[in-house]
């Protein structure tokens, strides 16, 4: 699904990530941890072809990202749900319209989708805020909306960058539950998080691999959790 082979990346001042080798198999669940600034967000950007590896290769749905055209990247992204660490919304559209936007722009609105949208907003606890404008939302509400927006198109792969950073424990568990359910339906999930308690909670429910980026390298972690 997504495969990195000795992938490397640097923003210009020397390599940040090197020798990243990982295969995200269909239906797998991965966590990515590591200190702030270690390169978790950068790693995710390589996975959704926002950045191109400066060494090695990244293959997404069988296509090497270095060789993909803009259109191919756009098409590939339609199969991925990305939750950005700094979630951004269109401030003049309501929360509900923002969450539905990936459907609207790909012409997939409709009655079945409308029901799906209401269910999803209920799941992330935002039904009562459907009409609110993004600037009126709290940090945690924005994060919950970002997760809903990422999964509304029923993507094959979900890449979530600190999806529970601003959220209380109970709601974090609820969002985790959503990711676990989606994984049980066959979706591939990768979650970058600092929250080791969240990883522990997940391990009781799903067989997840825990990766850690430290010193520019990717290691398998988890035994200590
Ligand atoms: N666009 C950029 N240009 C130059 N340096 C960058 C850029 N984006 C990130 N960096 C640097 O790369 C390093 C890794 O950043 P990244 O955002 O991937 O870390 P992270 O592990 O996600 O951190 P956090 O846990 O704080 O989110 C940091 O030192 C950061 O300052
Ligand atoms: Mg980050």
Describe the structure.
This protein is an alpha/beta fold. A six-stranded mixed β-sheet has the order 6-7-8-3-9-10, with helices on both faces. It has a four-stranded antiparallel β-sheet with strand order 2-1-4-5. The protein contains seven helices and ten strands. A hairpin with a 2-residue loop joins strand 4 and strand 5. It is globular, with a radius of gyration of 17 Å. Helix 3 packs parallel to helix 5. It has two domains: 149 residues, Rossmann fold (3-Layer(aba) Sandwich); 66 residues, no CATH class. Bound molecules: adenosine-5'-triphosphate and magnesium ion.
Topology overview:
Elements: E1 2-9, E2 17-24, E3 29-33, H1 40-47, E4 55-60, E5 63-64, H2 70-77, E6 80-83, H3 95-105, H4 111-123, H5 139-151, E7 157-161, H6 169-184, E8 188-192, H7 196-203, E9 209-214, E10 217-221
Parallel strand pairs: 3-8, 3-9, 6-7, 7-8
Antiparallel strand pairs: 1-2, 1-4, 4-5, 9-10
Helix pairs in contact: 3-5
The structure holds adenosine-5'-triphosphate and magnesium ion (MG).
How far apart lie the N and C ends?
Answer: 27 Å
What is the share of helical residues? 25-40%
Which structural class matches the secondary elements?
Answer: alpha/beta
Shape: globular
Adjacency order of strands in the biggest sheet:
6-7-8-3-9-10
CATH superfamily of the largest domain: P-loop containing nucleotide triphosphate hydrolases
């Amino acid at each position: 699904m997504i495969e990195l082979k000795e992938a490397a990346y640097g923003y210009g001042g020397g390599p940040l990530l090197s020798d990243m080798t990982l295969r995200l198999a269909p239906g797998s669940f991965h966590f990515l941890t590591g200190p702030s600034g270690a390169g978790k967000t950068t790693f995710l950007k390589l996975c959704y072809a926002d950045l191109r590896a400066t060494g090695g290769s990244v293959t997404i749905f069988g296509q090497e990202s270095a060789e993909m055209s803009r259109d191919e990247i756009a098409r590939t992204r339609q199969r991925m749900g990305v939750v950005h660490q700094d979630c951004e919304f269109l401030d003049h559209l309501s929360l509900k319209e923002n969450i539905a936007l990936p459907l609207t722009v790909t012409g997939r609105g409709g009655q079945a989708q409308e029901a799906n949208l209401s269910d999803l907003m209920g799941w992330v606890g935002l039904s009562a805020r459907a009409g609110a404008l993004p600037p009126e939302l709290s940090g945690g509400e924005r994060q919950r909306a970002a997760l809903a927006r990422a999964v509304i198109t029923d993507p094959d792969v979900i890449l979530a960058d600190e999806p529970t950073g601003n959220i209380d424990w109970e709601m974090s568990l609820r969002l985790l539950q959503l990711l676990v359910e989606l994984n049980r339906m066959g979706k591939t999930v990768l979650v970058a998080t600092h929250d080791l308690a969240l990883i522990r909670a997940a391990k009781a429910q799903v067989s997840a691999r825990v990766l850690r980026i430290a010193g520019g390298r990717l290691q398998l972690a988890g035994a200590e959790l």
